[in-house]
Fold these 2 entries.
Entry 1:
Amino acid sequence: MNQNYNFKSLQYSEDNKEQETNPDDIKVFETGQTKTIDFVQKDGTRQSFSYGHFMTAWMGIKDDERFIKIFFATHLITIKGYCLDPIYDHFINQYLKILRVSDERYLDQVKEHEPFIVEINIVWKKEDK
C-alpha cells in the first residue's frame, strides 16, 4: 500500500529554488511627502526620525568610500554606499521617506549610477556629565 503525501513545505521549496534577485527589486530608498525618515537595517530593524530634529548633513569621500553624515538633535547617522548623490539631494529637500541597507552581494546587479547603501550606522549622542 503506497500513499503519497503532498506537503506544502515541500512544494514551496520546489517552487522557490534558486530565485534570482531582480535588479529592479533592489530599492534602497523611497521618496514622497513626509515628516519623518525611516532607516531600515539589513536585518529588518527600523528606526525613524522626525525632520523637525534635523540639524545638518554633509556628503564626502574617505578612503574611496562615499558617505553621508546626518546630525539630528540626539543622533548621528552615517550612511555608506555608492552613488549617494540622489539620496543626499532628496534628504536635504526633506523628501526622503525610507533608506534601506542592501546586501553587498547584490551590488553587481544594480544599474550603473544607481544608489546602493551598504551600511547605516546610528549613534546616540549622549550628554557627557
Note: Residues 8-15 form the longest helix (8 residues).
Entry 2:
Amino acid sequence: MTSQEMFGKVRVQDIAAAIQEIKTGGQRMTARGAMTWCIQFQEIAYPTNYVLALAVKSATGQTFVPHTRKDSKEIIKALEKLLDKESKFKVVFRQAGRTRED
C-alpha cells in the first residue's frame, strides 16, 4: 500500500486522536529543531509526519513513512484539503522552530 493510499484512509478523527495521544503523554513527542510543516492545534505545533504516523497506524494498522519528497508534498496537499473545513486544526509552513510551546 502506498503512502497516499494509507493517508486516504485517515479521517479528521484520526488526526485528533493522534494529537490527543501526544498531549496526554500516550506518545512522547520530543522537541525538534527544524520542522518544515506542522499541524497547529490550540497554538501548539505538532510535527506533521509524527501526527500522521500515529493517525495512519490507528486507521490502517500500518506504519506510515512518506517514501519521497514528492510523496510528502502530495500528502501535505491532501492533509490541507482534509483539514480545510476543520477550523481547530491548521497546516502551517515553518522554516524552523520548536514543536511545542513549553
Note: The mean pLDDT is 82.
